[in-house]
Specification:
Layout: H1 20-31, E1 35-39, H2 40-46, H3 55-63, E2 71-76, H4 86-89, E3 95-99, H5 104-111, E4 116-119, H6 126-135, E5 141-143, H7 147-155, E6 161-166, E7 194-201, E8 204-210, H8 213-218
The structure holds NADP nicotinamide-adenine-dinucleotide phosphate.
NADP nicotinamide-adenine-dinucleotide phosphate (NAP) binds at residues 7-8, 17, 38-42, 45-46, 75-78, 80, 100, 123-124, 144-149, 152, 177.
């Protein structure tokens, strides 16, 4: 996010917040995960590939007997997804779309065979989604935004560890999306999150917070 907490600018143009060194760190974190999730708006706006970039990391994963890149996951209430998006067209990996029941037909019609569209129930909850992912063998999920998705995972107390990277500039436009929206978060003045690491990566700063006992026990 920017110094003032924004994830993006107010225009349709993609805002680059991280630097190359941090993108490489993100690649390393991704390679240790079973799946990566982004919201449908991020698929539409950023058109991310969500693949491991490094050959070495892809080969290491293959040697571990897992696909070269993690499973891709998105969530939609409307089914408004473009099968031409890189989410669907790039990478020989499984792609899952969790879709609210009323839009299932629309989503299946749109994405065709390029992804598995899962019935997420009348309205998809992240609790239900993660339970279903677990049943599909996903143990470690990386959530990469945007704000709507962050807010639901955090307010739902479903996050083990938060990696927050602050870029050295301001966006200064409240039409843009902040890191999270409004909500009742489990961390507040009376229950402070535990900072487990902080440090510069070139001109950005990485803050890591342990948000669950499971994460604290791993430290
Ligand atoms: N800086 C970063 O690291 C970073 C990372 C990712 C994204 N971003 C930015 O964040 C912005 C997008 O964030 P956003 O908050 O607008 O969108 P988002 O969280 O990416 O996606 C929101 C969409 O996901 C679907 N969705 C979310 N929760 C759902 C639920 N419980 N049930 C069913 N569908 C659900 C809905 O899709 P439908 O509309 O299809 O129903 C909703 O409109 C973009 O500007 C992007 O550039 C920045």
């Amino acid at each position: 996010m920017s110094i003032d907490g924004y994830l993006a600018g107010a225009t349709a143009d993609r805002l680059v917040l991280s630097n190359d060194e941090d993108f490489d760190r993100v690649d390393a974190v991704r390679s240790g995960c079973d799946a990566i999730l982004v919201g449908a708006e991020t698929v539409r706006k950023d058109n991310p590939r969500l693949l491991i970039r490094s050959d070495v990391r892809r080969n290491t994963r293959k040697a571990r007997g897992v696909p070269p890149s993690p499973v891709k996951v998105t969530v939609t209430a409307t089914g408004r997804l473009d099968p031409g998006a890189r989410f669907f067209t790039m990478g020989d990996v499984e792609k899952l779309v969790y879709c609210a029941s009323p839009a299932l037909a629309e989503a299946r019609h749109r994405v065709g065979t390029s992804a598995t569209v899962v019935d997420g129930g009348p309205s998809v909850t992240m609790q239900r989604l993660t339970t279903d992912l677990h049943a599909r063998g996903i143990g470690r999920l990386m959530v990469e935004g945007g704000a709507g998705v962050h807010t639901q995972f955090l307010t739902g107390d479903l996050v083990d560890e938060l990696h927050l990277v602050v870029a050295p500039f301001f966006v200064g436009d409240s039409r843009a999306r902040r890191f999270v929206g409004d909500g009742r978060f489990p961390w507040h003045p009376a229950r402070r999150a535990e900072l487990i690491d902080a440090g510069p990566i070139g001109d950005v700063v990485l803050l890591r917070y342990a948000l669950s006992d499971r994460c604290r026990e791993r430290q």
